[in-house]
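Hmm, what's this shape?
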Amino acid sequence: MKMKKGLLSGFLALALTSTLLVSTNVSANNSTESRSPFSYSLVTKGYDWGPGVYKIILDTGVAIQGNTLTKDTFKVLAERNYPMINFQTQQKYDGSDSGSRTIERAYLSDKDGNKTSLSAGQYITIEMKVHPDLMTASPFMFDLQSFTNKYVELQYTIVQQKSLQDTMGNAVEHLTTRPDTPHTMIEQGVDVFDTSGKFSYKDSKFGQINITYASYMPETNKKKPLIIWLHGAGEGGTDPRIALLGNKVTSLADESIQKYFGDAAVLVPQTPTFWMNDGTGQYTKDGKSMYTKSLTALIKQYVKQHATDIDTDRIYIGGCSNGGFMTLNMLLANPDYFAAAYPSAEAYEDLLLSKQDIAKLKNIPIWFTAAGADQTVDTSKTSTATYKRLIAAGAKNAHYSYFDKVLDLSGVYTKGNGDNTPYEYNGHWSWIAVLNNDISKDFNGKPVKIKGKSVTLMEWLANQKK
């Protein structure tokens, strides 16, 4: 079957859209009958390597007998289209990739895709295999022009290969999608965040700066700590969903992390370019960023706007790579504001830190994370060197988790092709362990402890207070 392009053109650049319901007259068993609407949703969530479409929820419009459904009932075809450029000729062209998605299971579910024990129902959920190397599962592509992640034009074609039966015993054979089949995209984990945040700042040197941001505020009446995450270079732009899904930042609002804080607010600012921009569009050579003042103003305004919700003695800041650099930048600019910091794969050159800078940082609780396999940032000239200087300067609450490689610790993903050893991620991605809270050991290999008890990074962070 030749797939038509443009089925989902542009829909991923929108927030969750309303399902459009249409009534269709179809022919079945040589007779025409009126059926309820048929629609579907693609379900995406954040993984360690980025977002992946892992579920399809079909609203069949009829009550399907569950015992007639198997994972072979359907076939799923995925196609991604995105703009490309030839850097030698500067000629732009359309890039694409496609493939058949592997279906792992299919079952009756509720409208949200949760498996049901009922013998019949109108919703069918199809679960598909995802993997770090399976690009056809991703709604993102990395744009080498802007050096940022962007949404692709994503098309899914669901083909019904075997007949189903409704509760009346009638054959159900109308569940192959068409270009006009109503559809939505659900981005799990993103829905609890407000992604509409916008902040404008008039910088005396750099002029008007506009920052977008995502935020999460638990619905509790008590004062809450604030966790700030600063994204890497690839998540810049004006769509905070990319900052939430480019890395598994949505986990900061998950119970697995929230439980340590007793509920915490989360703020995810997004720079329109990259945090290490010195104002010329180039990477900083002196440790300065054009966004220092505007980001400080955003954070302080957000805290002021939520004065009844946020505990100003428990504001934590961290981030990865570019965001790790900006974490140190913000600590130096506001040494008495943050209760603690948690930078990973940070890109702040240690030689740019003066003795006065080290004197500021040594009094701030800080936990670095990095991997020896990092080929993007030279850790010997950044986090490792800075950590050692802090310890030498007498820092009492500085920690550093340093491991050789960034491996999958979930036990789910392997190298494949007969090799069942854990999948190895890009060595720069040490923040995977941070966002999974899989960190508990210091630079010397011994557990980090609070009052004699071994703690994870997030548990440690939650216990820091100005």
Notes: The CA atoms of residues 339 and 465 lie 5 Å apart. The chain has eight helices and 26 strands. The domain at 194-462 is CATH 3.40.50.1820 (Rossmann fold).
